[in-house]
Amino acid sequence: MRILLLLVPISLVLLGIAVWAFVWAVRRGQFDDLDTPALDVLVDDEEREPKPPPRSNTDSGDAG
After folding, report:
1. Cα–Cα distance between 47 and 52 in angstroms, integer?
2. Within a 10 A sphere around the Cβ of 37, how many other Cβ atoms?
3. CB hemisphere CA count around 62 (13 angstroms)
4. pTM of the predicted model as reported, rounded to 2 decimal places
5. By three-state DSSP, how is residue 28 classified?
6. pLDDT on residue 42
7. pLDDT for 6-61, tens place per residue?
8. Distance from first CA to last CA of the chain, Å, rounded?
9. What is the enclosing helix (H) or strand (E) of 55?
10. CA–CA separation, 1 vs 6, rounded Å?
11. How far is CA 8 from CA 1, 2, 16, 51, 52, in A?
12. Of the candidates 32, 26, 29, which has an alpha carbon nearest to the alpha carbon of residue 18?
């Protein structure tokens, strides 16, 4: 029974830390956009990166 005098305050402190962390995350905007990160996994990396311009045969500089 004496252990409850130790465990109850520890659990209340941990609960307070968890509530503070949740409020901090909400204020920082961590939960603003929940759909885009999940859909971002489905997009290929090649589509997101800009493509280099196509090379033509006249750009090589070799005259012959």
Report:
1. 12
2. 8
3. 4
4. 0.52
5. coil
6. 78
7. 999 999 999 999 999 999 999 998 888 777 777 777 777 666 666 667 777 765 55
8. 94
9. none
10. 10
11. 11, 11, 12, 59, 62
12. 26
Q: Whole-angstrom Cα distance, residue 4 to residue 56?
A: 78
Closest C-alpha to 11, from 3, 24, 23, 21: 3
**Which pLDDT does position 1 carry in this prediction?**
87
Q: Is 18 exposed, middle or buried (0-12, 13-18, 19+ CB in 10 A)?
A: exposed
Would you state the structure tokens that stand for residue 29, as one six-digit string? 């905007």
